[in-house]
């Protein structure tokens, strides 16, 4: 296929929205300006599996400006903005393979389409592209110079591959950059998840019991935003250190089996499977609303909910009502997929600015340094992380101090005491 999208006639709306997002992406814009002049990616083929949004479009355009030949597919069947896909094809000449609501078979066919282009560099969000590349196209994987991974779930999967010795090329864990996870995960996921729940349900969050499963950076962001909306926030955790942090941050901490009895809203954000499952559904209130902001739709045990239900219907866009045998109703948002991208628009452009600046600079880094790297998962180089932070501060009109020569000497010596 040359490309596979829903409707090319949506291109004008997509172009306007891409341009709107670009206004809030000054760091990526500055990189694009340099890339346009230097063409550091000239002749390089890049296959990307990302959420097809306005922010992603600006990354793809930046890579093209750098001289790359770019192919794009969706990292989630429900996250694609069809108008963005059409604009990328029509105005920017990018082959896109993504349709919002595509079934699983189509999703994997789209992954295969971008793999068949025999990329030099891959960009992934969740590691489905890289795992499919390894499983089905070993010969192509052998020739890949390196890749980047955008999200926590994907990094976990890729580290497991590296540990087993099956990873065929180096990976830069963009998710682990400070300018990514401390901002994108916390502020981006926090705001966009609350936005999505409100759009989908039009329910009042103030005064509710809001359960957040997982207190990583994403969970912290959601918990903070929910508290800001006036909810009583309950955190569930399996990690004693994170649970202690949540308690010290002022949240109620308890096991999910107890939280399930109290919650009005539930959001899973753990990266694990079956976090909300049958025993939790059995004790939930009538009208409980459950959603997921982790990468895959396995955090909520939907098959168990199906088994417990005697009826199911869609009551609003992205809201499915499951009626249980005892008459209680449980509402599942966005089919258990990423709620912030399925029923809203994902993270604001200003925070994705840093995440995608990392992606662009890491593509350049891999091209220059792949021969020095092992088949392993690496952190983003500190120099790139700091460069992006400085550029972001500059775009916000913020200046900071620099160390004096005396301070540099003090911090690098051991002789001076009190």
From TrEMBL:
Domain S-adenosyl-L-homocysteine hydrolase NAD binding stretches: 185-346
GO CC terms: cytosol
Entry cofactors: NAD(+)
Chief localization: cytoplasm
Pfam entry (one): AdoHcyase
Keyword NAD found: yes
Keywords of the record: Cytoplasm, Hydrolase, NAD, One-carbon metabolism
Substrates-to-products reaction catalysed: S-adenosyl-L-homocysteine + H2O = L-homocysteine + adenosine
Gene3D superfamilies: Adenosylhomocysteinase-like, NAD(P)-binding Rossmann-like Domain
Places the protein is found: Cytoplasm
Residue positions binding NAD(+): 151-153, 185, 214-221, 237, 272, 293-295, 340, 347
Entry's Gene Ontology molecular function annotations: adenosylhomocysteinase activity
Annotated PANTHER family: ADENOSYLHOMOCYSTEINASE
Biological function: May play a key role in the regulation of the intracellular concentration of adenosylhomocysteine.
Protein name stated in the entry: Adenosylhomocysteinase
Organism from which the protein derives: Hydrogenobacter thermophilus (strain DSM 6534 / IAM 12695 / TK-6)
Gene: sam1
